[in-house]
Design brief:
Layout (H helix, E strand, L loop, with lengths): L1 E6 L15 H17 L3 H6 L2 E2 L2 E8 L8 E12 L2 E10 L5 E10 L1 E2 L11 H9 L4
Amino acid sequence: MFRYDLTVPFYDVDSMEIVWHGNYVKYFEEARCAFFERLGLTYRDMERAGFLLPVVSLSIKYMHPCVFGQRIGVGVDFDTENSNLLVLNYTVTDIATGERLCRGTTRHAAISRGTRELLFELPTLFWERLRQGNLE
């Protein structure tokens, strides 16, 4: 599993110093970008290869709140439901204690960059990078 670490910034919290629920989506996005970079396939690389991977669904389960100044890790692991959907699972943990704070899932469909039409399979380039990727 790949892990992206960050410190909860002040601008992500409410007056109780608890992370506003919508900011977890931002943390997932940051971790996803870092995950793709680790694979050697950034969003710009995907565009140049002629495909995009938009989010088509999102789910989040909040277990314990993240707070201002807390060091958290966002673990990213992948799965596929079928050949045209990439499923990314996220686990947010407190780095100091290992406590699980939040879980989430995003599903991504590959679409053509030029036409925005659904591709019926994730591009071969993407599968190759997933198989070759060093995710630790």
